Amino acid sequence: MAANELAASLSVVLGGATVTDLARLTGGASRETWRFVADDRPLILQRQRGGDVRDMATEFAVLRAAHAAGVPVPEVITASTDPSGLGAAYMVLSHVDGETIARKILRDETFAGARTHLTADFARALARLHSIDTASVPSLQSTDQVVQYRQVLDSFGDPHPAFELAFRWLERHRPPTGRQCVVHGDFRMGNIMVGPDGLRAVLDWELSHVGDPMEDLGWLCVKAWRFGSRKPVAGIGEYDELFGAYAQAAGVDVDPDVVRWWEVLGTLKWGIMCIMQTQSHITGLARSHELAAIGRRVCENEHDLFLALDGRW
């Protein structure tokens, strides 16, 4: 759909609003993102890309529940899974001003003040998210991710000895089942919007599911999301800062060994997800230079797993 056709269609789904300044934004492996203005209000459009078979209606529901729970998220203005409106399932969101590029958040002087309390901001946002009643989003699924990613890796038919070692470690050290709650599934640098004042919005909810809340803490600490920093929590904070702030906000103690288990699983998952995204490009399911390039990161995760299993994060 050409930009002028998309603008006209947006006007229709927004009740005849005047749509101007439509521009496509870069980034996003599973969503096509556009910025535009409707009747002088800045908004964001996200459309589902070809090859992504997930039900976007679940994402709408989670975003609305998170907004109601006080999690900093964009407001859902309108959304639909009917492709007849905009050519694909879509959602129109309020525009949140801020920065998502990790190297800028980690290094620029503009965010120096925010960096002093971002770890606590993350903890509070996660505590609010994990307080959501799972019954409010009944379409969310719960899966055994060790089994899930074991099956995914096997389906490719390629040997990855480092991943096999990680699977063996995860099975031997699996923690008892914790409480089940709404989990973001991809809470990390790159999916958060930050301003000089701190956390402004949590983005990209397509991987949300029901699971152990420690999964989100572990994923936030995966080495890939530190972007070269030595600090383990998103390249910004220390484990004790995150665990203490989360315990205070959520009213539950954090077991560091359980978070470490999820951190190892997160590293393994990201390595396998890199293969998955590259396969989408190779097979023609979703042709994208970005998806193709992600395949080069598989070896990084194999290296990070060796460090993790050796206790040398």
Any chance you could write out the topology, listing elements then pairs?
Layout: H1 3-13, E1 19-24, E2 31-38, E3 41-48, H2 56-68, E4 76-80, H3 83-86, E5 90-94, H4 102-107, H5 112-115, H6 118-130, H7 145-156, H8 161-172, E6 181-183, E7 192-195, E8 198-202, E9 209-211, H9 214-220, H10 239-250, H11 256-282, H12 289-294, H13 298-309
Helix pairs in contact: 6-10, 7-11, 8-11, 8-13, 9-11, 11-13
InterPro entries: ACAD10_11_N, AGP_Transferase, Aminoglycoside_PTrfase, Kinase-like_dom_sf
Domain Aminoglycoside phosphotransferase: 22-260
Pfam families: APH (PF01636)
Describe this structure in words.
With 313 residues, the chain is of the alpha+beta class. The protein folds into two domains: 3-94, 2-Layer Sandwich (Phosphorylase Kinase, domain 1), CATH 3.30.200; 102-309, Alpha-Beta Complex (Aminoglycoside 3'-phosphotransferase, Chain: A, domain 2). The chain contains 13 helices and nine strands. The strands form three sheets. A five-stranded antiparallel beta sheet has the order 1-2-3-5-4, sandwiched between helices. A hairpin with a 6-residue loop joins strand 1 and strand 2 (31-38). Helix 8 crosses helix 13, helix 9 (214-220) packs across helix 11 (256-282) and helix 11 runs antiparallel to helix 13. It is globular and about 60 Å long.
